[in-house]
Amino acid sequence: MKKRLLLVCFLASIVFTYAQDLPSNPTPGKCYVKCITKDTFKEVTDTYQSYPEYNTLDIVPATYKTVEERVLVKEATKKYVYVPAVYETVEVSYVKKEGRTDLKVVPATFGTSSKTYETYPSTSGWEYKILEDCPSVNKDDCVAACFVEYPAQFREVSFTTLAADASTNNIPVPEQTTTYKKRVIKTPARVDEIEIPAEYTTIKRQVVDTPAKAVPTTVASKSDSVDRTVLDQKGGISSWEEVDCELLDPNVLPVFYELGSARLTAASKKTIDETLLPIMKDSKVSVEIMSHTDSRGNDDFNQSLSQQRANSVVNYLVSRGISRNRLSARGFGESRLTNRCSNGVDCSEAQHQKNRRTEFRVLSN
Question: What InterPro entries does UniProt report for this protein, alphabetically (predicted)?
């Protein structure tokens, strides 16, 4: 009874906006949902124009006449004839070995010369002499003073002089020339332009003499009617009801898929038929399908694969008669792992299996 009530009422977590009028005497540890009355509908018939008024057209075909016309069948053009260059052979002189100037050394030449040097200067002075025939015993009595001059003394010295320092004489050595043969253009290459005239012919063709025309005929419009269901009275909130708290969490479906695929197995379809399908048929609740993968493989591929798997469950329920607007599908890839088995972590197959799951939860009634 409580499970069925859950499926026909808003989850308490979804109606938090109505927290100001929660149950007045709640029981500790219990959960509540606020139930609402269903919308009521009525049948109406509308008349509409099923086929519009339109015109049919009868075509009077065009008539033709034959005319002659001179047409160009080959355009005028130009032909270019290449005339190659004419060469002749000439001899070209060139310097095989450049001229130079050799140098011849002219040794230095010398001469002789002399110079007289005064080796001792001229002198003069008084000299005292003792007379040899002095009759006196005192020699001083026989002293004579003489003023004597001595001439200067000279010496002539011979030496070698530089007549001309060493130098060079320039000896020119002439260049050596020879020739080589060279082919030069006597008459340059050219292109002669030759005119090729256009070609014409006469053709016969049919041209429109009288254009086609359309004669309209009016066809009357048609009407039809359609029966449709419209909202008669909007439902409203009625009362709070107690539910099992565990039913408020997402419920895991033991749904399995082919490896790396979003295709449902026969066993998975049976599980949906026995669990989720009766709930959808016995009520008007809206359900969200949530699919998850383990961490193995590329992150983007897992995200896409989980969305495809959630879509597969929705598509199967639609094929079993459930309205698509009561279903939504979300793929979470490997973003909501239930254990530590993320990228790069070594885990067993059983641990990875816990993350490969499909869940559903009731959104509203």
Answer: Bact_OuterMem_StrucFunc, OMP_bac, OmpA-like, OmpA-like_sf
DSSP H or E segment with residue 330 = strand 327-331
pTM score of the predicted model: 0.38
Final residue of a structural domain among 131, 150, 170: 170
**85-139: pLDDT as tens digits:** 999 999 999 998 998 998 899 998 988 988 888 888 988 888 777 777 777 667 6
DSSP class per residue in 141-203: GGEEEEEEEE--EEEEEEEEEEEE--EEEEEEE--EEEEEEEEEEEE--EEEEEEE--EEEEE
Using alpha carbons only, how large is the chain's radius of gyration in Å?
68
Residue 103: C-alpha distances to residues 98, 125, 170 (Å): 16, 67, 5
Query: Widest CA span of the chain, in angstroms?
Result: 206
What was the pLDDT predicted at 71? Answer: 92
- Which CA distances in Å does 277 have to 176, 281, 312, 329, 365? 115, 6, 14, 16, 15
Domain region containing 256? 250-364
Mean pLDDT, residues 175-198 taken together: 93
Judge contact between 86 and 186, C-beta under 8 A.
yes
Tell me, rounded to whole angstroms, the distance of Cα 161 from its chain centroid.
91
Question: In terms of domains, do 336 and 274 share one?
Answer: yes
Residues 154 and 142 in one domain: yes
Give the model's confidence band at 182: pLDDT under 50 very low, under 70 low, under 90 confident, else very high.
very high
Domain check: are 313 and 273 in the same one? yes
Residue 205 within any structural domain of the chain: no
Task: State the total domains in the chain.
Answer: 3
Looking at residue 21, what DSSP letter applies? Answer: G
Say if residue 239 is in the same domain as residue 254: no
User: CB–CB of 358/309 below 8 Å?
Assistant: yes
